[in-house]
Amino acid sequence: MLNEHARTGTPRAVVALFATIMSLATVGCATHYATPGRAADFKKLGVSREALTDAGIDQTLAKPPLASFPCGIAVVRVQAPDYHSDSAQSYGTGNYCVITTRDIETDKDWQQLMKLPMVTGIAPVNRLLLPAQLNTDLELRQAAASLHADMLLIYTIDTTFHVEDHAAPLTVLTLGLSPNQTAQVVSTASAVLLDTRNGYLYGFSEATDKGFQITSAWTTASAIEDARKRTESRAFEKLVKGVGATWGDVIKRFASGPKVSAAAGS
After folding, report:
1. What is the reported pLDDT for 185?
2. Rounded distance, CA 237 to CA 249, Å?
3. Domain coordinates in residue numbering, the chain
4. Which of 85, 139, 217, 252 has the greatest number of C-beta atoms within 10 Å?
């Protein structure tokens, strides 16, 4: 049996941007989550929270949501450093790169995001707003601020595929022309919704899709590339639906609360 393995997706360095994303998705469905709210004030309970919590963790928990509703959302796709595909172009060096080409996203997907309640607009982040060196989410949030977007939606696609030859002797006899190979593609699309001003995490969403492609040895690369795009496109479509559900939870939890002016977040 002949086996070939390949993988494209997020590197370890980029995982820091998505540390809050849990692997809860199952094939064919999407998961979403909205942050329940701020941490409890231990001082009111007679306990010093600062004494019990590590400094870095305490700073994260202390971040307040600063966005006002309705609001604009900046959107950006990130991948591993030096990510490359036949249909997508990347920009930036460092811990991650930004994908500047829409190869798996459709107009329908963007329209669905633009129709979300209390959203004034969806603005894609392009390379003109970004520095060449990309290390943390700060560079992305600064770009979102340039677009006057209160929130930033960061998403990434993690794809694995495996090619299996079901009849190796037949492949030899037919010089690779027999469609006896199966390519299995699994794509997981993940997204986090951050506050542009301070990186407060409002929620996350994740969706997975699986595809199969019957191919031959002569056309394996092109066939897998086509299967990858189809599978990633379906995963992103499911992700958009999950983001919509997450946004509904965010609206219920944060839009009805007291508004914080832009000056407070500056």
Report:
1. 87
2. 19
3. 3-34+64-257
4. 139
Whole-prediction pTM value? 0.73
Distance spanning both ends of the chain, measured CA to CA: 60
Average pLDDT over residues 31-46: 54
Average pLDDT, the chain: 77
On whether the CB atoms of residues 223 and 183 are closer than 8 A, the answer is yes
- Angstrom distance (rounded) from CA 51 to CA 190: 34
pLDDT score, position 26: 38
CA 86, CA 189: separation in Å to the nearest integer? 19
Q: Which has the higher per-residue pLDDT, 64 or 260?
A: 64
Question: What phi and psi values does residue 29 have, to the nearest 5 degrees?
Answer: -140, 170
Contact 230, 212 (CB under 8 A): no
Q: Give the per-residue pLDDT at 111.
A: 95
Q: Return d(Cα 144, Cα 141) in angstroms, integer.
A: 5
H-type alpha helices, the chain: 49-52, 55-61, 107-114, 137-146, 168-173, 220-250, 262-265
- pLDDT category at 51 given cuts 50, 70, 90 is low
Share of the chain above pLDDT 90, in %: 50
Based on the number of CB atoms within 10 Å of its own CB, is 190 exposed (0-12), middle (13-18) or buried (19 or more)? buried
In the block, tokens 């299996």 appear at 164
72 token code pair: 């604009």
CA 204 to chain centre: 9
Per DSSP, the residues of 132-197 read SEE-SHHHHHHHHHHTT-SEEEEEEEEEEEEEEES-HHHHHHTTT-S--EEEEEEEEEEEEEEETT
Q: Which residue has the tokens 């001003």?
A: 197
Element (H, E) at 68: none
CB atoms within 10 A of CB 81: 16
